[in-house]
Request: fold
Amino acid sequence: MAAHTTAPAAVSSLLARYRTVRAATLAFTAPLSPEDMMVQSCPEASPVKWHLAHTTWFFETFVLTPYSPAYKPFHKDFHWLFNSYYNSLGDMPAKNLRSSFSRPPLDDILAYRAHVDRSIAKLLESELGTNEFDILSRITLGLEHEQQHLELAATDIKHALFTNPLHPAYNVSENPGAPSQSASSIEVGFTKFSGGLVNIGTTPDPTDPHAFAFDNETPQHKVFLQPFELASRLVTVRDYLAFINDNGYTRPELWLSEGWTTNCAEKWQAPLYWNRTDATPSGWVIFTLAGFKCLDELADTPVCHLSFFEADAFARWSGCRLPTEFEWEHATLQVLSSPTANMLETGNLHPTPTPLSSFAGGGGPASALSLQQMYGDVWEWTASPYTGYPGYKPLPGALGEYNGKFMSSQIILRGGSCVTPAAHIRPTYRNFFHPATRWQFSGLRLARNP
Ligand SMILES: [Fe+2]
Reply:
């Protein structure tokens, strides 16, 4: 008789994690109305209602349909309606039509979620037999996928609320972005790394279905690094305002060619969500998930909603450069993980200043431990293009479309943001976007050569 090859406690802890992750997605939608959840305000974004359905579709398509013979689909059309981009599974609606899905109504989507949740629980409580490894691996992948979409829901609803002429807040009871202390501008320091031959990426234990990494983080391999220096903190709004006031947006010598073309075409003058005003000393207000704030109030927070092109131009203006993804990963593995990282669970929903306490006794020689904000606040643009590591193999079948097919014309970002679930980030995690992308919480940390 077949028996679990994984300890029952590990299976029940996966079910507990499943319930926690799924509940976190719903909790995020609590302040939103059904109408809020219909909006798709830019080509990159999707309606929150679609995220709720698509994440459920993932479990239905990749776990229940292949591995649960007793499973009855919730609706005969959902298998293609909520497919995002998996061409090997068949056709799907064009992305720009997702805001037209007024039917099925939100209540049906919530019932779909509950139906799939019950079915996953039933599956995990049954005898898994010879498919156990695949079932547990795919549920683990589905949870990482759900967390990615929770972050996307946060960035998409921010854009939707900003686009609304009333500029409403996501949750007026929250106070994101407000410094918790009088944080003066902290001078940036640089930490030296000697480089050499270092390990990059990870090779999860192939016998452990819970040892998760996305395929694009694998396999672990060696990379040679020249000596480099990395900034102790992220670039702040105050730092970035100096670049704007030094005519950074109108000086072609600071920009990559494609960046300059984009800058001119889009008429950029500042990061996304910065509006000019006569009402504040700086002349700017910044939209947050708590509504507009004076730039002056956010001056010591990490600057965010930058494209790669803007981050690169700022770094050049500073006499520095962006770090490579390998430098970032190597440095992160040298520092202690920060228990105070500003990620989704803090509820700030906006980058926050570097804690002053982190610099207590500062002024001494920089050590690796003085690197701050490696996790959370903003995704950090790197100088690295998104490609497969040596020996990279996409997952087999349709799941191979998850990451591998996007390995062209995209740039790597590292470290997670203030809307990334804390359990979702790790030193080897590789995010990637087109270099003109600005709607994510994306910023930068400077690097330089010794
Ligand atoms: Fe997805």
Remarks:
- Residues 64 and 120 are 7 Å apart (CA to CA).
- Residues 54, 84, 145, 149 surround fe (ii) ion (CB under 6 Å).
- The chain has two domains: 8-163, 190-448.
